[in-house]
Amino acid sequence: MTITLNTLETQLEDLQQAALAAIADAADLDALEQLRVAYLGKKGQLSNILGGMGKLDPSDRPTVGKLTNEVKAALQTALDTAREALQLARVQAQIAAETIDVTMPGTLRPQGRRHPLASTIDRALDIFVGLGYTVATGPEMESDHYNFSSLNMPKDHPARDMQDTFYLPNGHLLRTHTSPVQIRYMEQNDPPIRVVAPGRVYRRDTVDATHSAVFHQVELLAVDQGLTFTDLKGTIGEFIQQMFGDVEIRFRPSYFPFTEPSAEVDVRWKGNWLEVLGCGMVDPNVLQAVGYDPEVYTGFAAGFGIERFAMVLHQIDDIRRVYASDLRFLRQF
Ligand code: DAH
Predict the structure, then answer these.
(1) What is the pLDDT of residues 279-291, one digit of tens each?
(2) How confident is the model at residue 7 (pLDDT cuts 50, 70, 90)?
(3) Which residues have CB under 8 Å from 215's CB, separation 6+?
(4) CB 147 less than 6 A from any atom of ligand 1
(5) Mean pLDDT of 212-236
(6) Measured on CA atoms in the order 154, 206, 265, 303, is the torsion positive or negative?
(7) Distance of CA 288 to CAs 110, 156, 186, 260, 292, Å?
(8) What is the residue with the minimal CA distance to atom 4 of ligand 1?
(9) What is the pLDDT at residue 233?
(10) Structure confidence at residue 1 as a pLDDT band (50, 70, 90)
(11) What pairs with residue 301 in β-bridges?
(12) Atom 8 in ligand 1: which residue has the minimum CA distance?
């Protein structure tokens, strides 16, 4: 059976139309490759149709040959164009998938922060370390000796009543101030001494907005040859300035058993004089008791309450807030 030129031409045109439509519809590169094999492959539809060439009148063959080449070229062009487009789309999809959108809001993790007491202690220590002081600590359970006697407060000394003491069943006590660290440090070290000692202290106070049975102090001690009250004033003045900013300060004569002369320091804060620390020249009796010669060495000391400082600096109205672990309070710092 012979095949007419017309039939072959129609077959080729139909094939081209169907192939171009399929190529345009190909969803991905795999689908495209399958179409190439199906139409242009060795056993593909084009070869199939050309198999009918032999049954064609020889004079018609060049016409069909030319048409075949045109169809082939058209399919190849369509395949190439589609491949490029699909490759580009794939790369773009990949880039889109890997892009980090820097404008997206991040996941907020709750951030911890320093407790106002801790940061106030650190601030005070930083200032003294900047002035050449070393940080020292001592035990919270103390003997009567270190808490009182060595600080020029022998038994029955009336000044012991200034500090209501927690006595322990073992005969010791909870230190009522950080001053015993002065004694312990001097016993272990020779002058010159520049030391700052933070710590927790205990008093049998009735708890209210300004009193707590447990609170924190920072103690200061300098011992050297030739130290005078002027050195004390300069050091305290510098400290207050760094702690509170440019405030007016005044020294008021006072009394502490372990210093002579003694003073209390007030700062002018929001229009009022506010007492912030006690200080004085180390009493010669105290120096003598640790084996320093008071004829050779003089010293000055100071002590202040951290809660008081924190409350003033942060306008905290009730001391109990700093122990309550209330996050609504703590998150403000
Ligand atoms: N220890 C005293 C108190 O707790 C504070 C104090 C005053 C300490 C004068 C000192 C000082 O070192 O010189 O009330």
Answers:
(1) 999 999 999 999 9
(2) confident
(3) 200, 201, 203, 305, 306, 307, 319
(4) no
(5) 97
(6) positive
(7) 54, 21, 11, 14, 5
(8) 177
(9) 97
(10) low
(11) 221, 280
(12) 303
Q: Which DSSP category does 107 fall into?
A: P
Q: What span, in angstroms and rounded, lies between the C-alpha atoms of 178 and 1?
A: 120
Most confident of 37-46, 78-87, 249-258: 249-258
Q: Which residue has the tokens 């009022």?
A: 272
**Could you tell me if the CB of 299 is within 6 A of ligand 1?**
no
Q: Which atom of ligand 1 is nearest to the CA of 182?
A: 12
- Test site for ligand 1: of 258, 275, 286, 307, most ligand atoms within 8 A of the Cβ: 258
282 Cβ inside 6 Å of ligand 1: no
Res. 39: pLDDT tops 70: yes
Degrees (nearest 5) of the Cα angle 278, 213, 158?
55
Q: Ligand 1: which atom is nearest the Cα of residue 176?
A: 4
Q: How far apart are CA 333 and CA 329, in angstroms?
A: 8
- How many whole angstroms from its chain centre is CA 295? 50
Amino acid, res. 313: L
- Given this model, what pLDDT does residue 11 score? 87
Answer whether 179 contacts ligand 1 (Cβ < 6 A).
Answer: yes
Does 265 contact ligand 1 (Cβ within 6 A)?
no
On the question of pLDDT at 56 being above 90, the answer is no
307 close to ligand 1 (CB < 6 Angstrom): no
Residue 82: the pLDDT is 92
Residue of the CA atom closest to atom 6 of ligand 1: 303
| Residue type, position 73, single letter | A
Q: What token pair was written down for 158?
A: 């009336």
